[in-house]
Specification:
Layout lengths: L1 H9 L14 H17 L3 H8 L4 H12 L11 H4 L6 H10 L7 H4 L2 H10 L3 H9 L10 H19 L10 H13 L11 E6 L6 H13 L4 E8 L2 H13 L7 E3 L15 E4 L8 H14 L16 H11 L9 E7 L1 H4 L6 H11 L3 E6 L12 E7 L9 E6 L5 E7 L2 E4 L2 H13 L6 E5 L4 E8 L4 E4 L8 H8 L6 H8 L5 E2 L2 H14 L6 H10 L1 E3 L21 E6 L12 H13 L7 E11 L3 H4 L9 H23 L1
Parallel strand pairs: 1-2, 1-4, 2-3, 4-5, 6-8
Antiparallel strand pairs: 5-7, 6-7, 8-11, 9-10, 12-16, 12-17, 13-14, 13-15
C-alpha cells in the first residue's frame, strides 16, 4: 500500500510550478476518488447506460440498484479510457462525466473540482494527469476496500505533511481503531458470530471513515456473513468527501454519511445505534456551536443529549461523550455500546457541580461507564499526550453492573520502525489481545482495577476558620467612603462619630465586645447612637487580623468566618468504608472532619449549606506505585565515581 500510495502521490510531480506543494491534495485526492469510482463502475457501465435510456430520476435509482446492486451510478458516455481519446475536448468531457453521476455523489463539489480541472487545462497539465491516473488500477479486485481506505489515509498524511498541518486532525491510526473495535465487540462476541447478523455502527466525527472501515473489516473477519451498516457525520468537506466515496466502494448506503456539525446539528437525531465510536478533537473550543448547543439544552431539558451539563467552551470533548451516550440503542431494545478516545482532562477536570463534573456524575450514576483504558503515549499522529478509550454500555451484564473497570495499557506497545509525526508507538496484535483478555477476565490485576461507581463520588465541603481580630479607634482616620457606608449609612454624616473616635487614642482591644462597649460609651457621652448591627460593622471596619485576639462573633454569638482562610475538602463517598453515597452523607462527612480536619485546624467548622457533589476518576493515582529513592550511600558512591572520571579527564587535558 505504501508503494501504491507513493506512486499515486508521485503524479503530483506533474503539478510542480502550477501548484505549490500544499495545494497538491486538492488535485490528487479527487482524482483518486474519481478513478476508484470509474473502476467500480466499469463492469456495469453498459447496463446503466441502457437503463438510463428508459428511466430517469428515482425510477432510475431503483432500476440500477435492482440490476447492478449499486447505490450510485454514472450515465455519461465517458470513462477514463474514452476521455483520453479526445485530448482537445478533455476539459469539457471530463466536466460532463462528473455531471452525470447520480445525485447522491456530491463529493467532487466539496473539492471545488471543476475549478481545478479548468486550471489544469489552462496550464496544459490536464491530459497528463488524466493519463497518469488512467494507468492506476484501483478496481476492488486489485485494491480491496480496506487497502483503499489505507491509500486515502496515506495520501492525506502526505498532504498534511506538505501543508504543515496535523495529519491526526483528519484520521486516527489503525492500531488504535482496531483496539477500540475489539473492545466494543468483546461483549457481543458470540452473538456477532451468528449467521445473518446485522448491526449498526455510528461515528459522529467520521473523518475519512477509518473507524467505520476497520469496524466492518474486523466484523467480517469474525463472520463473513455478517452485515454492519455504517453511519457517520463529518464537518470537514474534504474528509466527508473521502469518507463518502470510501463507503460507496464498500456498497454502503451513501445517504448514511452526512455533512455537518454534529454538536450544532445532529443529522441522525431520530436514530440510535448498536455501536458508536469517535475520536473527537482534543482541547478544541466549541464556540461556533455554543449557541445551538445551549438552545438545544434549554429546549430538550435534562433528558436531551446535553442535559447532564456542558464543559468549558474551551474544550468540547465531553459534549461528544454525552452525545454518544444518547446515541446508543436503548436498553429496552437490546442496549448499545460506545467507544470514544479522549485525553486526560475528562477524567478529572472541573470542580464539584461544574459542567464537567455533572457529566461524569450523570454517566456514573446511570451506570453507563463500562471501562476506561489508558493508552501508551506517542500513539497518535498529532499529539504525544496521554489518551484514554472510554467504553460506555447501557445494558451491562450482571457481573459488571454498578462497576467500572480501569485498564492500564500504557506499557503495552511496540516501537515503530519509522515514526509518523508524533506517532512512535503502536499496539500490535499481541498487545491488543492482552488488553482484550484483561477486559474479558474482569478481575483485579496489576494492570486492571475494578471499582464501584460510588468510588468516584465525593462531597466538596466548605471548612471555615474563626475570625480573630484586634480593634483600634485610631484606624478610623484611614476609612474610605465604602468602609463608612455600612456603619453610618449613605445619607448620614459620619463626621461627628469620626471626631469621637479620633479622641479615643491609640489603645488596641483584643475583644470585639469590649471594643464595642468602649465606643458605645464614648458615642453616648457625645449624644450619638448606632444600632447593634452598625456597631458590629464599625468594629469590623476598625479591626485587623490577630491570632492572639478573641474570636469575632455575629449577633447570635456564632463565630464569624475568616474568609481568606476559607478552604474546601473533598470527602470521598467511601471514606471510612462507607459506600452508600448521599444516604450516608452526614455521617461520612462528620467522620472525615473529625479525623482529617479538626485535629489540624482548632476551632474550625463546616458550612454544610455549601456542600456540593462531585465526581472524578483519578486514573493515574489508582495505578501509582511508590518507588523509594536510592540510598544516599549509593548516590554518593556514583558521584565519587563520576568525579574521579572528570578529574582524570582534566589531568589528561592539563598534561
Amino acid at each position: 500500500m505504501s508503494t501504491l500510495g507513493n506512486f499515486v502521490w508521485s503524479i503530483a510531480d506533474q503539478l510542480r510550478g502550477v501548484y505549490r506543494p500544499h495545494q497538491y491534495g486538492g488535485v490528487i485526492l479527487p482524482f483518486t476518488i474519481l478513478r476508484r469510482l470509474d473502476c467500480l463502475l466499469e463492469p456495469t457501465r453498459d447496463d446503466v447506460r441502457a437503463l438510463s435510456q428508459r428511466y430517469d430520476g428515482g425510477a432510475l435509482d431503483v432500476q440500477v440498484k435492482r440490476k447492478t446492486g449499486l447505490t450510485f451510478y454514472n450515465t455519461s458516455q465517458y470513462d477514463f479510457a474514452r476521455l483520453l481519446e479526445d485530448p482537445e475536448g478533455l476539459r469539457a468531457n471530463l466536466i460532463d462525466y462528473l455531471s452525470h453521476f447520480s445525485g447522491n455523489i456530491d463529493v467532487f463539489e466539496r473539492f471545488g473540482f471543476e475549478a481545478e480541472i479548468n486550471k489544469l487545462d489552462e496550464k496544459n497539465r490536464l491530459y497528463l494527469i488524466v493519463s497518469k491516473f488512467a494507468d492506476v488500477d484501483l478496481h476492488p479486485d486489485t485494491v480491496p476496500n480496506a487497502a483503499m481506505g489505507d491509500l486515502y489515509e496515506h495520501l492525506i498524511y502526505k498532504f498534511a505533511e506538505a501543508s504543515n498541518e496535523e495529519a491526526g486532525e483528519h484520521y486516527t491510526p489503525r492500531d488504535a481503531i482496531r483496539l477500540m473495535v475489539d473492545m466494543l465487540f468483546a461483549d457481543e462476541n458470540e452473538t456477532l458470530l451468528e449467521p445473518g447478523t446485522i448491526r449498526t455502527i455510528y461515528d459522529p466525527t467520521a473523518g475519512t471513515g477509518g473507524m467505520l472501515s476497520v469496524a466492518e473489516e474486523r466484523l467480517l473477519e469474525r463472520n463473513p456473513q455478517a452485515r454492519l451498516r455504517l453511519y457517520g457525520q463529518e464537518i470537514n468537506d474534504l474528509s466527508y468527501a473521502i469518507c463518502k466515496s470510501d463507503m460507496i466502494a464498500k456498497g454502503q448506503d451513501v445517504g448514511n454519511i452526512r455533512l455537518g456539525d454534529t454538536l450544532a446539528d445532529d443529522k441522525f437525531f431520530d436514530k440510535t445505534f448498536d455501536f458508536c465510536m469517535s475520536n473527537p478533537p482534543y482541547g478544541v473550543d466549541w464556540k461556533a456551536s455554543e449557541g445551538a448547543v445551549k438552545a438545544e439544552r434549554k429546549k430538550e431539558g435534562p433528558n436531551g443529549r446535553f442535559g447532564p451539563g456542558v464543559p468549558p467552551v474551551s474544550d468540547g470533548q465531553m459534549l461528544f461523550l454525552t452525545h454518544l451516550a444518547h446515541k446508543m440503542r436503548p436498553a429496552h431494545e437490546g442496549g448499545g455500546r460506545a467507544g470514544i478516545v479522549l485525553n486526560g482532562s475528562p477524567l478529572f477536570t472541573g470542580v464539584a457541580e461544574s459542567g464537567s463534573s455533572e457529566i461524569r456524575r450523570w454517566l456514573l450514576e446511570n451506570d453507563l461507564v463500562d471501562a476506561i483504558i489508558a493508552l501508551p503515549t506517542d500513539m497518535f499522529f498529532n499529539t504525544n499526550i496521554a489518551t484514554y478509550i472510554w467504553l460506555l454500555d447501557n445494558a451491562k451484564p450482571t457481573e459488571r453492573r454498578g462497576k467500572v473497570q480501569l485498564i492500564d495499557a500504557t506499557s503495552m506497545w511496540i516501537k515503530m520502525r519509522k515514526g509518523m509525526g508524533s506517532k512512535r508507538k503502536e499496539i500490535d496484535a499481541a498487545a491488543r489481545e492482552r488488553i482484550v483478555k484483561l477486559y474479558d477476565a474482569f478481575v483485579e490485576a496489576e494492570d486492571s482495577k475494578i471499582l464501584k461507581n460510588s468510588d468516584f463520588g465525593y462531597w466538596t465541603v466548605t471548612v471555615e476558620t474563626p475570625l480573630r481580630m484586634n480593634f483600634a479607634a485610631s484606624r478610623a482616620a484611614n476609612l474610605d467612603n465604602k468602609a463608612l457606608a455600612k456603619p453610618f449609612g449613605k445619607d448620614s454624616d459620619p463626621a461627628p462619630f469620626l471626631a469621637v473616635l479620633a479622641g479615643m487614642g491609640m489603645q488596641t482591644y483584643l475583644s470585639q465586645d469590649e471594643f464595642i462597649e468602649a465606643i458605645r460609651m464614648e458615642f453616648a457621652a457625645a449624644g450619638l447612637k448606632l444600632t447593634s448591627a452598625q456597631y458590629r460593622h464599625l468594629a469590623i471596619a476598625l479591626g485587623a487580623p490577630d491570632e492572639s485576639a478573641a474570636i469575632v462573633t455575629d449577633a447570635k454569638g456564632n463565630p464569624e468566618p475568616d474568609v481568606p482562610k476559607r478552604d474546601t475538602e473533598n470527602v470521598p463517598f467511601t471514606f471510612g468504608g462507607n459506600a452508600l453515597g448521599d444516604a450516608n452523607r452526614d455521617e461520612t462527612i462528620n467522620a472525615y472532619f473529625e479525623a482529617e480536619v479538626a485535629p489540624h485546624v482548632p476551632g474550625a467548622w463546616m458550612d454544610t449549606k455549601k456542600t456540593k457533589v462531585g465526581y472524578e476518576i483519578p486514573f493515574t493515582r489508582l495505578f501509582y506505585t511508590y518507588t523509594p529513592p536510592r540510598p544516599l550511600a549509593e548516590i554518593d558512591k556514583d558521584l565519587e565515581t563520576q568525579i574521579s572520571k572528570i578529574m582524570g579527564l582534566l589531568r589528561e587535558v592539563e598534561g
